């Protein structure tokens, strides 16, 4: 993860704020990508069928060239001032009764946990060069956090009720994410795995980024960041066998992060021991001139994309074994 300099970040969208002072700018290092959190709330108020992959991609990547951004899936607008957190938008009151692992889940809980993981990772992977957790979204905080406040009247006379200066909701429920008997624990484990993926591969600061597919029918998004290939299936029921994923480099790919892993509250539909090889010329139709050419990419490989999952594939770099001297 990128370490922010002392200049830190700023919230204005004005173009000069992230330009060096010697070039006539203000000198901030990063800009907060504020549109992303608002877009997720807008989408969560709609049915899955109404989500558009192109709109998601446009919102995540709509920023000035070479201007570094800090992305986040939710902000204080949801977590602090009376709106719903993303987790609560997704799962609502079911969170109070069906997050324990010793009792059956519900379709709303299964949907919510799956999409919560996908929303966080696609925001981190495409939204900028830095990523920000906010007020418990790393483990799906069930409620917004309400600080003690008294009743007040605005200058126009409008009455804003307080909460009686209550401390009841003035806390983050860290115990939920740490409890291994609750589904929150799997959501927190996924957040830790996201951070580990970035630490290992440095994809957020990679110069290479290419979005090869945003399929509105299949609800599939595929893109490359560094040596990683991200395959998102936002479809609510369709899973796809032998789905071709375009990529830049030839070779063998392996699964390095799978949101469907049981550790993260998933259903274990991906074989983590499988190896994925890019196509060679003899294995593709004769009318395709380039090796494995697919979605404007020079190579491709076949994957299984279960519904409501994200799977990340990495190009492997097998170690060469030393040649033993002849006896």
Automatic annotation (TrEMBL):
Entries under InterPro entries matching the protein: A-amylase/branching_C, GH, Glyco_hydro_b
Pfam families to which the protein is assigned, alphabetical: Alpha-amylase_C
Domain Alpha-amylase/branching enzyme C-terminal all beta: start-end pairs: 210-315
UniProt name for this protein: Alpha-amylase/branching enzyme C-terminal all beta domain-containing protein
Origin organism lineage: Eukaryota, Viridiplantae, Streptophyta, Embryophyta, Tracheophyta
């Amino acid at each position: 993860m990128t370490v922010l300099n002392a200049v830190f970040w700023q919230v204005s969208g004005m173009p000069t704020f992230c330009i060096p002072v010697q070039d006539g700018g203000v000198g901030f290092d990063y800009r907060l990508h504020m549109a992303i959190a608002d877009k997720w709330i807008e989408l969560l108020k709609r049915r899955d069928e109404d989500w558009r992959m192109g709109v998601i991609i446009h919102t995540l990547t709509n920023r000035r060239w070479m201007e570094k951004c800090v992305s986040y899936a939710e902000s204080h607008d949801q977590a602090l001032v009376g709106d719903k957190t993303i987790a609560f938008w997704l799962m609502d009151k079911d969170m109070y009764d069906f997050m324990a692992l010793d009792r059956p889940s519900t379709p709303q809980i299964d949907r919510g946990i799956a999409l919560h993981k996908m929303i966080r990772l696609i925001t981190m992977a495409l939204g900028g060069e830095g990523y920000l957790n906010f007020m418990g979204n790393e483990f799906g905080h069930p409620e917004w956090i309400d600080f003690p406040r008294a009743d007040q009247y605005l200058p126009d006379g409008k009455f804003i009720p307080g909460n009686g200066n209550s401390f009841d909701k003035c806390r983050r429920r860290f115990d939920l994410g740490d409890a291994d008997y609750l589904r929150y624990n799997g959501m927190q484990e996924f957040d830790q795995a996201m951070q580990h993926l970035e630490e290992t591969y440095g994809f957020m600061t990679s110069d290479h980024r290419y979005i090869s597919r945003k399929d509105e029918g299949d609800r599939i998004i595929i893109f490359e960041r560094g040596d990683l290939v991200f395959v998102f299936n936002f479809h609510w029921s369709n899973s796809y066998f032998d789905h071709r994923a375009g990529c830049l480099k030839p070779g063998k790919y392996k699964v390095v992060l799978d949101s469907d892993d049981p550790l993260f509250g998933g259903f274990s539909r991906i074989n983590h021991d499988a190896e994925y090889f890019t196509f060679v010329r003899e294995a593709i139709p004769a009318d395709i001139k380039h090796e494995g050419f697919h979605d404007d990419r020079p190579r491709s490989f076949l994957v299984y994309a279960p519904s409501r999952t994200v799977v990340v594939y990495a190009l492997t770099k097998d170690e060469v074994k030393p040649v033993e001297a002849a006896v």
